[in-house]
Amino acid sequence: MTALTNTRIVLASRPNGAPVSSNFRIEHVPVPAPGPGEVLLRNRYLSLDPYMRGRMEEGPSYAAPVALDAVMEGRTVAEVLASNHPGFAIGEHVLAPGNWQTHAVIDGDQLSRKLEDNGLPISTALGVYGMPGFTAYVGLQEIGKPQPGETLVVAAASGPVGATVGQIAKLQGARTVGIAGGEQKRAYLETLGFDVALDHRADDFAAQLRAAVPDGIDVYFENVGGHVFDAVAPLLNDFARIPVCGTIATYNARGAVLPGPDRLPGFMSQVLRQRLTVRGFIQSDLHAFFPAFLRDMGQWLKDGRVQYREDIVQGLERAPEAFFGLLKGHNFGKLVVKLD
Fold first, then answer.
1. pTM for this one?
2. Which of 39, 268, 286, 314 could form a disulfide with 83 if both were Cys (CB 3.0 to 4.6 A apart)?
């Protein structure tokens, strides 16, 4: 095999607030030959996700941070170029922890999913038919548990998690209210079948939300935090369930003291008084549900009952700038970098 060069993006420094270009560095290094049990991969698509912001920090989290001068973490759809593992053959496509780089040599035992031809673009394994879709599915099934006739509200509803949450909840008979940023995204929610679609940037957003939920909120799928949660909290019904998937509004303030009064005691009183269920979750902790997700989501996609949107950026060198935009809500749909 002709010697290959790997283009990769490493974490050069830790951000102070919002990440900037100098926090990353592009490198070009030789690709090593795979050893026993290893496979050589050519990454085709790289997923960009909000959780990556936390991996840039040294502070405590549910997973270890990316080390300085190490390749940035990320899931990829990759093609097998060479294999010393009996489970994988040249030319097959796999879901891999391939990271922000064009090539990767990985122990074949770390490759948990081989991508079969199911009529969907292979990039969907990074979105609606992968981790974001599973996050929506398992957060609803295990925590939200929307019942027919109940009202569900989801923030960041035009993103890959929020859009899927709303559609699954609708399939389960719930009344759905989606919140997004900007008129274009708000209008998109209507095409997905949300009963009400709101723009959180509107001056009277809180009043619009109150009018949209005359019977209160039974399930609030939290992706954002910030002023959206401020508007939601007074409208929660007794016994409401809040799956906490993300709080992207505060990601760039990690380690900082946020301005304003301390409202935690008041919220904890509300949790007790209204018997709220507030549960943070990490989708990897609930992997036992994944086979059911593949079965159900595969059928919903085949039947056209769940729709999805991808925001595809061309070229690895554009990953940092696209990631900055993701944290500001600039993407429209699942953000994926095409590496070919």
1. 0.90
2. 39
The residues, ordered by sequence, that sit 6+ positions from 307 with a Cβ below 8 Å of its Cβ are 163, 167, 191, 192
Q: Are the beta carbons of 198 and 205 closer than 8 angstroms?
A: yes
pLDDT at position 253 is 64
> Is 313 within 8 Å of 323 (Cβ atoms)?
no
Comparing C-alpha atoms, which of 247, 221, 248, 220 is closest to residue 234? 220
What is the rounded CA–CA span in Å between residue 300 and residue 39? 33
pLDDT confidence band for 224 (50 / 70 / 90) = confident
Predicted pLDDT at 1:
52
Torsion of CA 86, 88, 90, 91, to 10 degrees: 160
Query: What burial class does residue 265 get, using C-beta atoms within 10 Å of its C-beta: 0-12 exposed, 13-18 middle, 19+ buried?
Result: exposed
- Helix (H/G/I), strand (E/B), else coil: 217: strand
In the chain, the percentage of residues whose pLDDT exceeds 90 is 87
H or E element, residue 53 = helix 51-55
